[in-house]
Amino acid sequence: MAVSFLSRDVSDLCLGKPALRPVKADTSVAEAVAELKRSGESHVSVWSGCSDHSTKALEEGHNNWRCIGKISMVDVIVFLCKEENSRNLSKALQSPVSQILPSRTDIVRHLNPNSSLLEAIDCILEGTQNLVIPIQNNNTSNNSRTKPASPSSTDHGGVEYCWLTQEDVARFLLNSIGLFSPLPTFTIESLNIIDYDIMTVGYHDLATSALGFISRANADQTSVAVIDDDNRLIGEISPSTLAYCEESVAAAIASLSAGDLMAFIDCGSPTDDLLEMQVKARLEEKNLVALLRLMEEEYSALFSSSSSSSSSSPSLSSSASSNASSFSSDEELGLSRNSILGRYFSRKTEAMTCYPRSSLAAVMIQALAHRANNIWVVEEDQSVVGTVTYKEMLSVFAGIASPRDRPKLPAGPPEIINAFNK
Fold first, then answer.
1. Where are the beta strands (DSSP E) in 168-220?
2. CA dihedral sign, ordered 156, 158, 164, 170
3. What is the DSSP secondary-structure string of 213-256?
4. What is the distance between the alpha carbons of residues 142 and 147, in angstroms, rounded to a whole number?
5. Residue segments in the chain with a per-residue pLDDT below the cut of 50
6. Are the CB atoms for 417 and 183 separated by under 8 Å?
7. For 290, which of 89, 275, 327, 386 could close a Cys bridge (C-beta 3.0–4.6 Å)?
């Protein structure tokens, strides 16, 4: 039963998915930032190939439009934090967006809509974060069924595409978790899915020292743990939170400690005079005038627009929440409004934790409920020992259909082990 479930088409996961908003690879970073803010999404897709993404181009046989990556505000912030860019923001923002694309080419991958759920999971285990799927309609769905599933094929007779995330796949599996019983009751420790290769930064360390970790966390869909001197978890710097920040957070990263950066993100208000003065003083000390001006301009814009935004047309943030069809309200999403961030974001810097003896089902529910890319694994004294990401969780389900990839069987009653082997 579980194996047949994994054979379902990925198109089943695409129902209700919004179409991707394409950004050309030669678009400037400034234009990409504007598109991020207009869309209200955490990422925008970057495309290359056909210059006219339209029905006319498709009819003329020019359907070579291809997604080559994705960018978020995390990529922009890290880019602006580089020394050569932080001193000349105008020039940096006019750079083509292709310059800030992650070097890895497997982060996004095209997949046929009639590919199996297991194929999608295999792609994720190989490093893919987003699967680009053609949106089917009545005129194209039958034709696409006649084609063999191929990760490299994108010509399905459709114009628009959506994408599936690791979270989408995990949520789909959780909705039918009973089919995989008793596997979900096994502990994450016994399933060997705890990743002990974690990235940490001290609470008092400079936030700039974590820039490399932030880039890596963004590529690996995890976070950077902020710890005290006893290795106890205090919070995290999460790309999923930074993705909804404004570009002025680059100024905070350039001038604050990791602990103060967390406070800056959580507070999120220019009325916090202490943090604002601290950022300005350190930027002036480092002669980072461009970053200082960027922060002041955004604060000024926030103040001038705050009174009129509530009575104006629907905001970007409401547009973003309307796309989240799996939830009925912002409260269910765990979303918060923050004036410095300017958009909705999923969580602040509080880290979600579990224990090595936590069950797979419990960790999946926790990650999905909090929209967290990873759950930190801690001991009783809150010392951090590892993390669990969606990739590790999904590897367990892939192992059911592929015996050679099965996780190591946990020690336990024979009846449980026998049930797993069925």
1. 200-202
2. negative
3. HHHHHHHHT--EEEE-TTSBEEEEE-HHHHTTS-TTHHHHHHHS
4. 9
5. 51-62, 139-158, 269-271, 302-303, 305-346, 404-417, 419-420
6. no
7. 89
* Angstrom distance (rounded) from CA 214 to CA 143: 43
The pLDDT tens digits for 120-137 are 999 999 999 999 999 876
**What is the CATH number assigned to the segment(s) 8-165?**
3.10.580.10
Percent of the chain with pLDDT over 90: 50
Full-prediction pTM beyond 0.85? no
- Cα 207 from Cα 260, distance rounded (Å): 8
Convert the pLDDT of each residue in 56-101 to its tens digit: 443 444 457 789 999 999 999 999 989 888 888 889 999 999 999 9
Q: For the chain, what are the domain ranges?
A: 8-165
Rounded distance, CA 150 to CA 97, Å? Answer: 28
DSSP annotation string for 252-319: HHHHSBHHHHHHHHHH--TT-HHHHHHHHHHHHHTT-HHHHHHHHHHHHHHHHHHHHHTTSSPPHHHH
Judge whether 344 and 320 are in contact, CB under 8 Å.
yes
Find the largest Cα–Cα distance for the chain: 67
Cα–Cα distance measured from residue 246 to residue 8, given in angstroms and rounded to the nearest whole number: 39
How far, in Å, CA of 58 to CA of 296, rounded? 45
Render pLDDT for 229-250 as a digit per residue (tens, 0 to 9): 999 999 999 999 999 888 888 8
Q: Side chain identity at 347, as an amino acid letter?
A: R
Alpha-carbon distances of 130 from 42, 44, 110, 161, 273, rounded to whole Å: 13, 11, 9, 12, 40
Which of 63, 74, 59, 75 shows the shortest CA–CA distance to 110? 63
Bridging pattern class, strands 130-134 and 374-378: unpaired
